[in-house]
Automatic annotation (TrEMBL), chain A:
Belongs to the FAD-binding oxidoreductase/transferase type 4 family. It comes from Hibiscus trionum. Its EC number is 1.1.99.39. GO terms for cellular component: mitochondrion. This is D-2-hydroxyglutarate dehydrogenase. Residues 112-291 form the FAD-binding PCMH-type domain. One of its GO terms (molecular function) is (R)-2-hydroxyglutarate dehydrogenase activity. SUPFAM superfamilies: FAD-binding/transporter-associated domain-like, FAD-linked oxidases, C-terminal domain. PANTHER family: D-2-HYDROXYGLUTARATE DEHYDROGENASE, MITOCHONDRIAL (PTHR43716:SF1).
From TrEMBL, chain B:
Its main location: mitochondrion. Residues 23-213 form the Electron transfer flavoprotein alpha/beta-subunit N-terminal domain. It is found in: Mitochondrion matrix. Keywords: Electron transport, Mitochondrion, Transport. This is Electron transfer flavoprotein subunit beta. It comes from the Eukaryota. The keyword Electron transport applies. Heterodimer of an alpha and a beta subunit. CDD domains: ETF_beta. GO terms for cellular component: mitochondrial matrix. The electron transfer flavoprotein serves as a specific electron acceptor for several dehydrogenases, including five acyl-CoA dehydrogenases, glutaryl-CoA and sarcosine dehydrogenase. It transfers the electrons to the main mitochondrial respiratory chain via ETF-ubiquinone oxidoreductase (ETF dehydrogenase). The keyword tRNA processing does not apply.
Amino acid sequence: MEKLRATSSLRRSLKSILNRQLSSISEIRYLNGKRSCQPTFSLIRDYKSLGEANAIRYRCFSSVSTVVQRNPSFSTLNSDDISYFKRLLGEKSVIQDEDRLETVNTDWMRKYKGSSKLLLQPRSTEEVAQILKYCNSRCLAVVPQGGNTGLVGGSVPVFDEVVVNLGSMNNIISFDKVSGILVCEAGCILENLISFLDNQGFIMPLDLGAKGSCQIGGNVSTNAGGLRLVRYGSLHGNVLGLEAVLANGDVLDMLGTLRKDNTGYDLKHLFIGSEGSLGIVTKVSILTPPKLSSVNIAFLACRDYSSCQKLLMEAKRKLGELLSAFEFLDIQAMDLVLNHLDGVRNPLPASMHNFYVLIETTGSDESYDREKLEAFLLSSMEGGLISDGVLAQDINQASSFWRIREGVPEALMKAGAVYKYDLSLPVEKMYDLVDDMRTRLGDLARVIGYGHLGDGNLHLNVSALQYDDKILEQIEPYVYEWTSKHRGSISAEHGLGLMKANKIYYSKSPETVKTMGSIKKLLDPNGILNPYKVLPHSLDS
Amino acid sequence: MKIMVAVKRVVDYAVKIRVKPDKSGVETQNVKMSMNPFCEIALEEALKIKESGLAKEVVAVSMGPSNCVDTLRTGLAMGADRAIHVEASRDLVPLTVAKLLKKLVEVENPGLLILGKQAIDDDCNQTGQMIAGLLGWPQGTFASKVVLDKEKQVATVDREVDGGLETLCLDLPAVITTDLRLNQPRYATLPNIMKAKSKPIKKITPEELNVDVKSDLEVVQVTEPPKRKAGVILSSVDELIDKLKNEAHVI
């Protein structure tokens, strides 16, 4: 890989030559509340050669470091604004209380911290529309917020943006028992939807660790993945329709409940995964699968990563329609969970294994499913793919197995500082990155690998006692370059947010990003919606 | 010594219980069924005793419809040596279960009979006491610790009672019923599940044991507990005092 040192003037001249193929130049980090900046290597992908040679050229430029600046075209709040919002929403939904603002200004990982002075809690689409219309006319920047469980700093303000929290819009509008289509407001908490559907005999097509706080609007806006994706697919398939409010206050009613609808551009997809940068999702209609009565969970140990891979292939073949989750964690992740979480016990206490795999099957016939799973597990054990394993005999045991897998992020938080990377990679290459990182970091930090093996999604985590620039230098941009080299995605399910906005070029071509910029410009000409996020900062200038 | 353990198939502990619309009982169709958690603890204790060399064989017994075999397979996968299934289509009340167990004890001659203190479906908490009475054996109920002395042929049992622990010494053979804190049941490992497939499950009917399963109890109706009303947020202390006085009538 070719590395060039480029001064800022050289960079400017290159920019014209390369026809805007340069990616952005800045990166900000908020570590322990302190903001620091550091130069980052930018990467250019030359897609033009792709057609013939199927090759991608990479070049790195060390760049001049800049800190993200508050966009001067945004206004600052004044007392007229506050009284307008109070008239519109009522006193109770306009919050200026320091303590409550502290919560909405800080992300779940306490890594990003904004300084918003205002939190609005609309109760209806009309109120959201009025808020945005006003903010747009006043050029006030807005951050849409759901459960604030994001991991990339996408849900908290960067500067003094107005926070619009949808938590008060938490009504279930309708549920059709025949088709399984649920229509609800964006602020519904995922777990509440899960328990509502449970009573109706249905399940949500997505499930994730943060279900107790995350909201469906946020899930849709960030195209959250989670544990059931391997079975039910992504939200692009499960969301049948949505209602979104644009920056100018226009309400796009796309709240269809049809499985088939080929009339024009399917605009709803723009709002799934755009992280609130194109509009605020206010209502959602989702196709929910029926709840099947028979769920079986096995917790298995594998000797090496290639056994995990082979096991996945075998599971897809032999469990077929039953397979509903295939998760893995390595020995370091297991060790963290056992040491940092109360009440978790090792299901395979005899010895520690290098890899653990959790397989879940969901079907309609208890004894048939169980027989099938048992036969599969026993043959895999005889074949040497599994070195040991346990099969949950009741729901309590099943939840204790899930607790281990779902408890990894929590254990990481308790263990100290953590650098999180959420990568999509070809399954066969996935764990090589973890090994590479271990070699690179040596004794500096612990490298932990776990994730959704069934979806080729690795959660690479680096755990250290405290945040340290030396560690970060070893990780970035290496991880991104490695991922890009293997044609992976630098954000499988967490999104780009603030953390990776400038890293988009590692996974998307300049032309694609340029088109994204045009769409953003079209839907939000003043750029008031979730600014500084998703798209690279260089597009703003 | 041989240990006999009674295990019951019940609606899974984690399943939300639903009452049948006609109030005749609890919905068990299409509901996940598992081994009663207290029975799991009873079996775990038996297996521990066997592993410490104080018993030679653990026999798991279950009674009820043919699906009870699944529960017995779980027991065998945990480590029981063999199983007995008393096949009965109708619901069995504790006294009937105790009578059936008595017959099996007469055949098997175990040195120790361990049961869960109660089943989480009917919460009867009667079978252990009844079988001890029928057999004329000493009983240590709600055991939170069990120590066997092979030479003296006694079992020392700690029981959790209000305000402390009670320690009993029982002559063997005896009946022990298990409480929650006695142990943590093991998981069924794949090698043990594999082994369990070849372990025998003996089927036997109440008729063969010469026990009449007719009950002189009749369930009149089963109802759900009243739904809890949602809380309200009050805006002032005065309002709170008013509510406490006039609605809750506590001050």
